[in-house]
User: Fold EAL domain-containing protein from Planococcus dechangensis.
Amino acid sequence: MQYEIQEDRKVIIDWLRRLGIEFHTSFVVVNPEVPDHPIAYANDAFFEMTGYIEEDVIGKNGKFLHGSKTDQDTGKQIRESTATNQAGVFEIVNYRKDGTPFWNEITVQPLLFPEKSLRYTLMLQRDISDRKRAEILIELQKETYRGIEKGNMLGELLQNICGTAESFFLDGASCTVLLVDEAQRFQVAAAKSMPEEFIKVMRSMPVDTDYSPCGSAFLEKRPAIIEDVPKNHFGIEQQEVLSRFNIKAIWSIPIFNGKDEAIGTFGIYFPTAYTPRDNDLSFMEEIASIAALAIKFSHQQEEILRLAYIDEESGLPNRHYFRTELNELLKEGKEGFVAFLSADEFLKISDQYGHRAGNELSRELGRRLVLAGGTGEKLVARYSDSRLAIFSAIPLTDAPEYLEHILSSLREPVTINEMDLFLAIKVGVAIVTPAQQNAEELIRCADSALSKAKERVGEAICYFENEQDEVMMRDLRVANALTIALKRKEISVYLQPKVALESREILGFEALARWKSPDLGDISPAIFIPAAEKNGKIRQLEQHVIEQVLSWLKKRQDQGMTLRQVAINISADHFFHHSFVPYLVDETTSCGIDPKWIQLEITERIGVVDIDTAGTVFAQLKKYGFATSIDDFGTGYSSLSYLQKLPVEEIKIDRSFISNIDERGTRAVIQTIIQLADNLGLRAVAEGVETELDRTQLLEMGCTVAQGFLFHRPMPIDEAHLL
Assistant:
C-alpha cells in the first residue's frame, strides 16, 4: 500500500511538472501533510523570479524567502491557510537569492485527490513590486502634501521619503538627500540611516564629478551609477572613506526645480556591489520628483514665514515672531526675563537723518544684542520702530549681571551717517517665574517697566514690581530652606489610593511629597519640587520619599498586613543617575521588601531626553522586579516609538484630560490613550477623577483603574496604614 501511495505521488508530481512547462506563471507546490510544509515542486518561472535553483528549493519550507522586511503575521496566515486547505490571496515581502526584497502576491489553492487520499497546495506567485511601487508613490505624494500643509520641517519630509525608498531595496541600503548651496557644496538634508561619522564627511562636500557620483549626477544632470565602488576610479582618500563605512555601490539621481535646474541629489548607498534592475532608476526618479516637490513647497513656506516674521527694514525678527516664539519657549517652564530696550536718541536720529537711519540704528542694536550675553537661550526682535524685545532663559539670580553685560555692549558708539553717536539705553524688565508664564502679561509688564525707565535720566534699568516679586522672593527662600528641611526630615509622605473603577477596591497607592515648614508654612509641591530640581536636591528628596515608603511597607509586612504596590515619582535627573538602580536594589534588599511592591513613575518627556539610555535603565528595573509607569501621558512628547522601546507596564492619563472629559475632542484623546494602552498590553490609569459622571464615562471607554478625590484624597502615611 505504501508503495502505491509513493507511485501516486510520483504521478501527481510528474503531472505538475508537465503543467509547469506550459504554465508561465510562477508557482510552487507544497506538501501540507508534512509538518514543515516542504516544497514538492517549483516551476522554471519561480526559479527565474527568485534567482534560486531546484536544489535550493525542493524539500525546503518557503521561509527561506523571508527576510527582515517580511511581515511574519502574513507568513503565519499563509501557513495556516495551507494547513487547513483554505484558499486565499496574500501580499508579502519576500527576498530573491541575491538579497533583493520584492512584493510577492501568493494565491493559495488546495489540490485535493480524494480518490487517492492525497492533497497538495498550489501557490501561484506573482512579483507585484511595480504595482506596490506605484501605490506607494501615490501615497508618498499625499503624505508629503499633508506634511507641507501641517508645516512639517523639510528635513522631516525628506527623511520620510528616504525611509520609504529604502524599504524597496537591499537590507542595509541607506538613502540621502543632498542639497547644493551657493558655494557649490553639498548640504545634508536627509540621511538618518547613514552613520553619523559619514554624515560629517558629507557635510560641505565639494560638488565634483571626481569626488562622488552625487557630484556627477548634479553637474551632468543625469543618473550616476557606481555598481562596484572598489572597481571605480575614486581616489585613495574617497576609497578609504567608503571602505570604512562598508559602501560598495552608490546610485545617485539629480533633483530638479521647476526650471529644469539641478538643486541637489537623491542617492542610495549599498553594502554590497549592486546593479540596478528594470524600473529601479525610474522609481528613483519618481522619488526624486517627490523630494523636489517637498523642497519647492518648503522654500515657499519659508518665504511666507520670512515675510510674516521678519522686519524687512532691519532684518530682525518682528513682533509677531517674538510673541509666537515666546509662547513656545515659556512652555518649557524655565526661569528668565522679558525685556524691552529703547534708545532715547531714536526719534531724534529718525527726524534728523530719515527713517532709514532709524532702521540702521535698530539693526545695529539688534546685532549687538544677539552677540551679547553668551550663547544661552535667547530671543531678540524688533518689537516696534523704536523698541527692541529680548527674552533670555537664565537663572533669576544671574539676571542683573546678564543685563549689565548687555548694557555694556550697547555703550560703544553707533556710527550713523559717518557720525559716532553715544546712546542712552533704557530697559524695562519683567521676570519670568513658575508663577508668571503668561506671554501677553510678561510683554505688558516689560512695556510698563520701560515706561518707568524712560522717566529717568541717562541709562536706566527698571524691573516691573508687583505681587509677582513676592512670589520670586518666596521661591528663593524656599530654595535656601530646602536643604535644612531635608536634614530635619520636615518633608513627609502622603499616599493617594489607586482603585478599581468598577468595584472601588484599593489596588495600590501613589506616594506624594508634602512639606510643612516651621518658618514658611505649607509649601506647595509645585514650588518646592522645581526648587529641588534647580538646586540639585531632587535626588535627595526622592530618596527620602523612597525610604519612607519602604519603611511603611516593612511595617505592614512585619505586622502580617496586606501589601499593596506604591508608585513613586522619579525625576529625569535621578532616573539617569548612575546610582539610581543600585540604590533601589540596596534599599529594598535592606528592608526585605520584594521590588514588585515598588512602582517608579517617570514623566513621558524622559523618552526624548535619551531614549537608548532610558531603555537600558527600564530593562534593569524590570530585571530586578520593579514596576514602571509613564506619568502625565499625552501632555508632552507622546510617541508610539518610545512606548514600544521602553518596557513599562502602565501609562497614566493626565488629570488635565479628565477635567475636560465632557469636551468631544478631549474625550476622543482619552479613548485613544486607553485603546493604545490596551493594544500595547499596558494598564491605563486615569488621574483626577472627581465625579461619578467621570467614573461612568471612563468605564464606558474601557478604563479599569483610576485615582482621584471621588475615591480618596491624599492621606498621611500613618492614616493609609489603616487601610
The two ends are 75 Å apart (CA to CA). Residues 1-5 have pLDDT under 50 and may be disordered. The first helix runs from residue 2 to 22.
